[in-house]
């Protein structure tokens, strides 16, 4: 089975209305190019790094104007749409960084709340404390879309291989890794981490990214890419400009890669490590 996918690379504004106006033409272009599965980046509905400005703007997922606009667009175009993440308010009043799978009729069929919070002190002096704004999820998620099984993850998750192994063992053949990667870490780690996650699970990786310098002052890396199960990059954007990236996925390559190097079944339980004496 061959599946045509499209990754949408954005430079999301700091308002819901601005975000929807920015992303909708790109989603339309993706559908016009024949994609039946379209993936957008992390923070597709709004990006504002000042939490005092952001938090009052967040709504419940069902009330989010950008999400609802994208749901209507998916239904109009008849495509599967992975909203790489929407920044939303939870029922308990906390905030979540939530990936949303939308079916061709506009229904939400799966959601995933980002497990790993980006709490870092980079060598450049840049710091981030995602946990100060968002409550992490506690559940890995797989979902069916466009005839394939997806493993849903977000950005910083890519640094934690265990979640991808669990998703692959559960049946995922395509890993979605939408992101808003920083420019320093993007230059150093973006490609190598994505290729590693593909190789060690024998899966396709779809990494739709934010790119460029945003209204809120942040800079993101861009360079969206698709990685095949053997680890080769089969499609990429070479810059941080908004755009659409297409790829045709031969899903038989997943079984071929996993049969050639069966790491999902060869792994052994172990104890330790112990301290040598």
Molecular structure report:
With 277 residues, this protein is an alpha/beta fold. The protein has one domain (2-263): 4-Layer Sandwich (Nitrilase/N-carbamoyl-D-aminoacid amidohydrolase), CATH 3.60.110. It is 27% helix and 29% strand. The protein is built from seven helices and 16 strands. It has helices at 16-32, 51-54, 65-77, 161-169, 183-201, 252-260, 263-266, and strands at 2-9, 37-39, 80-89, 95-102, 108-113, 119-121, 127-129, 141-145, 148-152, 174-176, 204-207, 211-213, 219-221, 225-227, 233-236, 243-250. The strands form four sheets. It has a six-stranded mixed sheet with strand order 5-4-3-2-1-16. The chain has a six-stranded mixed sheet with strand order 8-9-10-11-14-15, with helices on one face. Helix 1 packs parallel to helix 3 (65-77). 45% of the residues are buried.
Number of domains: 1
Largest sheet: 6 strands, mixed
Order of helices and strands: EHEHHEEEEEEEHEHEEEEEEHH
**Oligomeric status:** single chain
Q: Low-confidence runs (pLDDT<50, min 5 residues)?
A: none
CATH topology: Nitrilase/N-carbamoyl-D-aminoacid amidohydrolase
CATH C-level category: Alpha Beta
Shape: globular
Enumerate how many helices there are, as a single number: 7
Secondary structure category: alpha/beta
Proportion of beta-strand residues: 25-35%
- Taking the alpha carbons of the first and last residues, their distance comes to 54 Å
Radius of gyration: 18 Å
- Total strands: 16
Q: Into which percent range does the helicity of residues fall? A: 25-40%
Strand order of the largest sheet: 5-4-3-2-1-16
Mean pLDDT: 97
Tell me the CATH superfamily: Carbon-nitrogen hydrolase
What is the name of the CATH architecture? Answer: 4-Layer Sandwich
